[in-house]
Amino acid sequence: MKNLSACLLLAALTSTSRRSWTMGKRLTPSALATLRALLDSYPVDAFYIYSMNETSPVFTWDPTGVATAGRYLVRAAGDWNQTTYLARSDVQVQFIEVA
């Protein structure tokens, strides 16, 4: 019965369309530390991100979390990918919509 419920859960997750975002950015050491701290704080838990094209007004976000336009509940997916140069680091992270 346990395997059946796991299969049903997997089928439910794969049958619904979920959005995903890939962030590839060159970051300063302080921005890199902030992003790494965020992802270390939520290793498997979900958190909110804003799709800036869908916010109102466009390319703004609500720091209070009240505005829900363009806001998605996501989790990090895949591995941390980082290439470090002299003053900056290139980072690539993928986020997948949870709900």
Protein described:
The protein is α+β, with helices and mostly antiparallel strands. It has one domain. It is built from 2 helices and 4 strands. It has helices at 2-15, 29-41; strands spanning 20-27, 47-50, 71-84, 89-97. It has a 4-stranded antiparallel beta sheet. Mean pLDDT is 83; it is low at 1-11.
Note the topology:
Blueprint: H1 2-15, E1 20-27, H2 29-41, E2 47-50, E3 71-84, E4 89-97
The assigned structural class equals alpha+beta
Question: How helical, in percent, are the residues?
Answer: 25-40%
Backbone CA Rg: 16 Å
The run of helices and strands is HEHEEE
Distance between the ends: 25 Å
Based on Cα principal axes, name the global outline: globular
What fraction strand? 35-45%
Main beta sheet: 4 strands, antiparallel
The order of strands across the largest sheet is 1-4-3-2
Counting structural domains, the number is 1
Q: How confident overall, as mean pLDDT?
A: 83
Number of helices: 2
Which stretches are poorly predicted, pLDDT < 50 over at least 5 residues?
Answer: 1-11
Task: Count every beta strand, where a strand is a DSSP E run of 2 or more residues.
Answer: 4
Sum up the structure in keywords.
35% strand; globular; disordered N terminus; alpha+beta; four-stranded antiparallel β-sheet; 99 residues; 2 helices
